[in-house]
Amino acid sequence: MLARLSLLCTTALEVIHLENRELVGFCSTTDLYLGELAMKRQIVYTGGTFDLFHRGHLEFLRRCTEFGDVTVALNTDEFIEQYKGKAPIMTYEEREAVLLGCRFVEEVVPNSGGGDSKPTIELVKPAVIVVGSDWAKRDYYAQMGFDQDWLDERGIGLCYIPYTQGISTTELKKRVREL
């Protein structure tokens, strides 16, 4: 089924298949129309660190709500230190509080699997996983510890949405250092 393939949402209305760049459907604020699949207020899974919450995070989470109710799998402090080689500036509890205060987030759960996101994804039971388009050029499947077959077996779609240019936690840290 086409809906199970990796998708790129280039605008609020177009959904493009990453392999052949063909328009395969449309998304709106309440539904993602893909042939037989119409997701109505389904659970959306996204994960990340969300350190030094900024406009890019806010825009990303807003776009995630176009696909349903957003659950964020928040990386633990221990995983971030292991993965990035340094601790986050904000603690898990601080990052969780900020996310829970964001009107675009329904729930925050710890990404307890670290580099293997499958346990957290299975806990959340999403209809779709939404990630930034910056991951479209990297091996997102390897990073998350699953493959397309694993997603297909669970009926989970994967959608990439545009990365917000010009702002990032790394950029904010750079600005602070230059003060």
Notable traits:
7 helices, 179 residues, 10 strands, Rossmann fold
Secondary structure layout plus pairing:
Blueprint (H helix, E strand, L loop, with lengths): L5 E4 L4 E4 L5 E5 L3 E4 L2 E4 L1 E7 L6 H10 L3 E8 L1 H8 L7 H9 L6 E5 L6 H7 L3 E5 L7 H5 L3 H7 L2 E5 L7 H9 L2
Parallel strand pairs: 1-10, 6-7, 6-9, 7-8, 9-10
Antiparallel strand pairs: 1-2, 2-3, 3-4, 4-5
Describe what you observe in this structure:
The chain is an alpha/beta fold. The chain has helices at 55-64, 77-84, 92-100, 118-124, 140-144, 148-154, 169-177; strands spanning 6-9, 14-17, 23-27, 31-34, 37-40, 42-48, 68-75, 107-111, 128-132, 157-161. It has a single domain (2-177), classed as HUPs (Rossmann fold, 3-Layer(aba) Sandwich). The protein is built from 7 helices and 10 strands.
Mean pLDDT: 79
CATH superfamily: HUPs
The overall number of domains is: 1
In spatial order, strands of the major sheet run 5-4-3-2-1-10-9-6-7-8
The biggest sheet amounts to: 10 strands, mixed
| CATH third-tier fold name | Rossmann fold
Note the beta-strand portion: 25-35%
Briefly say what this structure is.
The chain is an alpha/beta fold.
